[in-house]
Write a structure and sequence with these properties.
This protein is mainly α and 393 residues long. Helix content is 49%, strand content 8%. It contains 18 helices and ten strands. It has a three-stranded mixed beta sheet with strand order 1-2-8. It has a three-stranded antiparallel beta sheet with strand order 4-10-9. Strands 3-5 form a two-stranded antiparallel ribbon. Helix 7 runs parallel beside helix 18 (344-361). The protein starts with 7 loop residues before the first helix and ends with a strand.
Length: 393
């Protein structure tokens, strides 16, 4: 199997490929990279959920690559994040940030999210072709996470650029360079905040570190980078994918236009239908396991295709149908288990406020390009549009 991210047809619609793989076997070996290495790809829902909750699948990337002589030069703060750790380190780090993303904490951010959304929509030209991604889906989550972390306004364009480069599939040098730019920036921002503290989440993490909360300086930088990148890349894709799904289903779009209060209730189905995270982050077996009837040896990567699992007909009947009345709360787009996305409440709040505002202010919004000509981001990890041309009415 060649790298599917280089195939425009797969990027446009990966689900038929996933369906045929799942029907053959929900867990199967696939070649990865050029060195003849094998990984196991999980496409079934039950198997994906089981894998995400299995402690024998480690996320300690550093342990996996130790001694393998990789030529990669990722900055340690990007390579060794909370996301790439196991308990007890993961438990300790996650506890430090969970409070910032509780429903109550997100509720306090809602007026700010609504204000930014309105300011962005004020700039949309009426009746002309416009890019939904660059006009809303990219800037909104960046501004919100930067506000939460306390990143100054003038620095946000740089942060956004480096973050995008971290997902440049097939360009290891670009990714490595961006990891150093981002980590160096965060190190300097932390130093500046120590001299002039504020009330942001990053300031709270600094005081936890300086109050000896068993948080090392490298862990502090790494948490800041992770929250910044994970806090907006995925939400950008969620907004774009959700908008496209609705624009391609006029009856569903019309229903939400007439009943914008239904938006919060349909977010799970929009997340299930086209997951903004296509494949869960890196895991590997610490011992031989059997998953979905397939024996997997110790020490090999296991790729959990969240997008494929969300379209498993065993769990979601007629999975290729966008059904806004479906109970899709069990979708795996935020992951499952101890690594479930800590920012899920924030992502949902942003999507709810943004989609409701677009439908209210531009009830006649239409797709302005044939769906098969849309430009998708060439990356295996996340699934998202590079641009989404719309016409506003």
């Amino acid at each position: 199997m060649t790298d599917p991210t280089q195939d425009p047809r797969f990027l446009q619609d990966p689900y038929p490929t996933y369906a045929s793989m799942r029907s053959r076997c929900p867990v199967q070996p696939v070649p990865t990279g050029s060195g003849g290495h094998i990984s196991y790809l999980v496409t079934g829902y039950a198997e994906a959920r089981e894998a995400l909750g299995d402690a024998r699948l480690s996320k300690d990337t550093a342990a996996f690559f130790a001694g393998k002589g990789s030529r990669r030069r990722l900055h340690p703060a990007v390579a060794h994040t909370m996301l790439a750790s196991d308990p007890p380190q993961h438990t300790r780090l996650r506890k430090l940030v969970t409070k910032a993303f509780t429903t109550g904490a997100v509720a306090e951010l809602r007026p700010f999210i609504a204000q930014v959304t309105d300011e962005l929509l004020d700039q949309w030209p009426a009746g002309e072709q416009f890019d939904f991604v660059s006009g809303l889906a990219v800037p909104l989550p960046v501004i919100v996470i930067c506000e939460l972390l306390g990143v100054p306004e003038g620095d946000r364009p740089d942060v956004q650029r480096w973050s995008g480069e971290l997902f440049a599939a097939g360009k290891p040098d670009v990714i490595d360079a961006a990891s150093h730019s981002m980590a160096d920036y965060m190190t300097n921002l932390i130093a500046a905040k120590r001299l002039d503290p504020g009330g942001s989440l990053l300031d709270r993490l600094i005081s936890a570190r300086d109050g000896d909360d068993h948080l090392s300086e490298e862990e502090l930088v790494s948490l800041a980078v992770l929250l910044l990148v994970a806090g907006h890349e995925t939400t950008t894709n969620f907004l774009g994918n959700a908008a496209l799904a609705l624009l391609q289903h006029p009856a569903e779009l019309d229903r939400l236009r007439k009943n914008p209060d239904d938006v919060p209730a349909v977010l799970d189905e929009l997340l299930r239908f086209d997951s903004p995270v296509s494949t869960a982050t890196f895991r590997f077996t610490t011992e031989a396991i059997t998953l979905g009837g397939t024996d997997i040896p110790a020490g090999v990567p296991v790729l959990v295709a969240l997008g494929a699992a969300n379209r498993d007909p065993e769990r979601f009947p007629s999975p290729d149908l966008l059904d806004l009345d479906r109970d899709a709360a069990a979708h795996l787009s935020f992951g499952h288990g101890i690594h479930r996305c800590v920012g899920a409440p924030l992502a949902k709040a942003e999507a709810e406020i943004a989609l409701r505002a677009v439908l209210t202010r531009f009830p006649g919004i239409r797709l302005a390009a044939p769906p098969d000509q849309l430009d998708w981001r060439r990356t295996r990890l996340v699934r998202g549009l590079a641009s989404l041309p719309v016409r506003t009415y």
